[in-house]
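Dear all,

This email documents one entry for the complex benchmark we are building for the journal club exercise. For each entry we list the sequence lines for every component of the assembly. Then comes the predicted three-dimensional structure of the complex as a token string, followed by one or two observations. Please use this as the template for your own entries, and keep the labels exactly as they appear.
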Amino acid sequence: MRQRLSPAPFLYVFALMMPVYWLVTMSFKTNGEIAGQLTLFPAAPTLAQYAVIFGDPAWYFGYVNALIYVALNVAIAVTVAIPAAYAFSRHDFFGHRTLFFGLLMFRMMAPAILLVPFVQVFSDLDLIDTHIAVALAHCFFNVPLAIWILEGFMSAVPRQIDESALIDGYSVPRFFRRIMLPQIAPGIAITAFYCFMFSWIEFLLANALTTIDAKPIAGIMTRAGGVLFGDFALLAAASVIGMLPGIALIVLMKRHLARGFSMGRIL
Amino acid sequence: MIRRTATAYLFLAPALLIMAFCGVLPIAFVFFYSVHDVFAGNSFIFVGVTWFEQLLTSREFWGALARSLGFSALVLAIEIPLGIYIALRLPARGLVSSVLVVLLAIPLLAPLIVVGYLWKVLTLTETGLLTAAAALVGIDLDMNDPVVVWIILLLMDAWHWTSLVVLLCFAGLRAIPDAYYQAARIDGASGWAVFRHIQLPKLRLVLLIAILLRLMDSFVIYTEAYIVTRGGPGVSTTFLSHELVQTATIQFDLGEGGAMSVIYFLIVLAVSWAFFRLIVPARSRAERSALA
């Protein structure tokens, strides 16, 4: 539809970016300047905070750890969700509705409910402070989400394609590799994007299940003198770096973002 | 049917296995804790519904529950209309459109801890940007005033999550064929009529997803709110998750925490069920209209 350019989205995005701008300027200031008075630009821009973070493995491994468990989580969630979404999309099996309801429910679960049991289970398995523990814990919200999104995309692929592949003698793995997965490639990208997002931002479980070796940056930030009255400039720099992986992903995904997801046939 | 069901479950098996381990198993633990008392860390004594009785007569619990419900209601009332409005006004295609979409998505990927820290520093007395902006228009941003603190938390949540509503609605709007708008123009439909009779019906399913995600994710808010307010002033921003984490990990009261988790779980169950009932008819209607 042709429409006149409205100022509303520009004003809104401007308002969204102000806090981000504030965070970035703070990261180039000194603590003296931050505590002193309100300045819109750093009086004497300094990279000292960034030097601290990139000079100390205890800091920069926080980012590496977070990226490792998020990548693991996305890989697990998407891998198990692909066949499950196919079953929801193509089969009218016994328990279809019940299972869908169960998935919906777990996606809505509060991390706080699962916190203590997770700590218990993963300590019994001797997996506390490992990346896989966090990756598995985050599955309770990401596996259902991945199934929903992928099911929508698979249901948009005509069933006749399955049938003709069957007649042509494709095996199931070959059918997925050669036919189904290329058809839903944008859907897989969208799914990975949303799984990355929800795992990357989560704090409560990621922090509780790790101590040193797998501690994410968010846990290090709370420890470094407390997020409340700690080193403002240093925490601002850590925050800015903490936003960079997300921004990189958004730019990579920009063509797919506007595609969104409908959770197609299920919803 | 039996053969089809067997095949389907073969496809479902990996996902169900994962969900059994990281969903069903922890919930079973929570139910176990809720009817036991712990001694010396590992000996459990069955105590029946004692913890539930204690909890259901506790003012802290009901207060936290009421605050969580109120917060979710306000979040939906702000973010859903605002999200729809921005999505409607967003340029449909072109470079400007994709730049705006990229910028809109940035808050979504800010880690919760960063969101909390950011809004903490925005509202610092004297040197916070928001404090200064409010002072310019004559408002005193007093973080000891519960009303002010609630407004800040709602602003923070809107900043972080309204973009999700925008993106979902924007995608839904782009999926409407141009022919619909042409037909509306021929009929001389007003902007409101186009929204009410073309755009809103087409957005129905996307909006249900947006409402469901925003409702539940705000209902379980923990990290960001805690960093900004620490639950205060007083207990004015102590939500259900704060109460639960406090009980279960800081007081290390597994039984009471378990009972609270079970009630929390039942609320999640009820809300999911309500949505499920709402969604399934919507789906068959959508299918019928797709066939027609």
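Observations: Chain A touches chain B through 105 residues (CB under 8 Å). The mean pLDDT of chain A is 87.
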